[in-house]
Structure formats: structure tokens, C-alpha cells
Amino acid sequence: MIDKTAAAPRIHSTAIVEPGVEIGAGTAVWDNVHIRGPSVVGHDCIVGEKTYIAYGVRIGDFVKINAQVYICTGVTIEDQVMIAAGVIFTNDRYPRAFDESGGLAGSGPNHDTLSTTVGRGATIGAGACIGPGLTIGAYAMVGMGAVVVRDVAAHALVHGNPARRRGYVCICGHPLPDLKGLATAEQTRCQRCSRSFAVRAESGVLRPLFASTSPSP
Asked: Which of 36, 76, 90, 149 could pair with 55 in a Cys bridge, judged by C-beta atoms 3.0 to 4.6 Å apart?
């Protein structure tokens, strides 16, 4: 079902949008995209060329998906997320082509299918591979080519194979200073956008805490 209220979504003539797909107003779906139903794509999104979105996927509003992205069953993408070109999501830790009887395994979800959530405002860099059953926290930044095999904390900057935390980023995406040097400050600001944040220890790990998504005056 395509939402035709307000600014209707723009669907390229070569895109395949199956029955049961819901697409919000103002969303652009580019050439050779394949979206399987049932699934949901929110309003004012961009789905880049040759991207595949499986059934059961839920995508929020203001999401930017670049070209040739593979989003499998079990993935939820919250609002304002950016997924760069060539990102691959996975949903099974131990996949096989055959089932218990030795025949070809079905393609549908089963007890081994794991769910992944990408939190609000997060960015996943080009060519990253996201393992199954993970949570990528709000406003996290995953570097290009990263292989993510464990959860990513909110605002964390991770890259490498396997991806490891290298620091933290602001809501605007700019890297934050070393939190150890800020641990005694009641509040500090991002050097780029002037948003204010505090430093808090959670389970012995220092993390930035933003009170607002808006820049400070």
C-alpha cells in the first residue's frame, strides 16, 4: 500500500515494490530497488538504486539509504538513520544452504533468525557488514568497511575488523574529545555545533549524555 496523502512517494519505473509494502509520503525509491512485502518505509526517506529490502523490515522517517544496500529480514531502522552504499545486514550466525534432511533450506525466517535494530540518528559507513542480533545505538557512527560483531553503544565511533570503539561522536557526527579529560566537568560542549553534554559512568565506562538534540544557544 502506497500512502498518497501529502506529497506522494516517488517510485522509479524499474523498482519492484511488492504488495504489502507501506511507503510514506515524500519518500523516493530509485531505480532497480526491490522492496518485499510486508514491510514499512517511513516518510521523507531515500532508498538508493539497486537496494534490496526484505519482508518484515521496518524503516522509520527521514532515513537515507544509499545504493546497493542489502537489508535482510529482522532489521529495524529507526528515524534519521544514514546507511551508506554497499552496507550488508545479516540475520543468521550459522547459516547453511541445507536443512536437517539434507535438502535445500527454506529462505524464510526460523528459530535461528536474529533481529537487529539501528537506533535513531546513527550512521553506517560504506561497505560495512553488520552481524546478526545486534543493537546499534542512537547517533552511533560505524566506519566504512567495518565488520560489526557486537552491540554498538549510543554515540560510539567504531571501525575496523572486528569493529572496536575508538571514541564517541556528537549528535551532529563530530568526534568528541577524550571523555577521561572531561569526566570532572559538570557539562561541556561539542566543538562543532555547541550542543551541551555531560559525561557519565555506566558500568565503569564513561559515556556522553546529551540532554537535547538541538544545538545549545
From this structure: 36
CB 62 within 8 A of CB 27: no
How far apart are the C-alpha atoms of 8 and 60, rounded to whole Å? 17
> In whole angstroms, what is the distance from residue 142 CA to residue 157 CA?
6
Write the CA distances from 89 to 8, 19, 94, 133, integer angstroms: 28, 23, 14, 10
Closest CA to 51 of 14, 80, 98: 14
Q: pLDDT tens-digit profile of 96-123? A: 999 889 999 888 888 889 999 999 999 9
Q: Rounded to whole angstroms, how far apart are CA atoms 201 and 179?
A: 10
Report the CATH superfamily, name and number, of domain 10-177. Answer: Hexapeptide repeat proteins (2.160.10.10)
**How do residues 121-149 score in pLDDT, each as one tens digit?**
999 999 999 999 999 999 999 999 999 99
Q: What is the mean pLDDT of the chain?
A: 93
Amino acid found at 62: F
pLDDT digits (tens, 9 = 90+) for 157-198: 999 999 999 999 999 999 999 998 887 777 889 999 999 999
Asked if the peptide bond before residue 162 counts as cis, ω within 30 degrees of 0, the response is yes
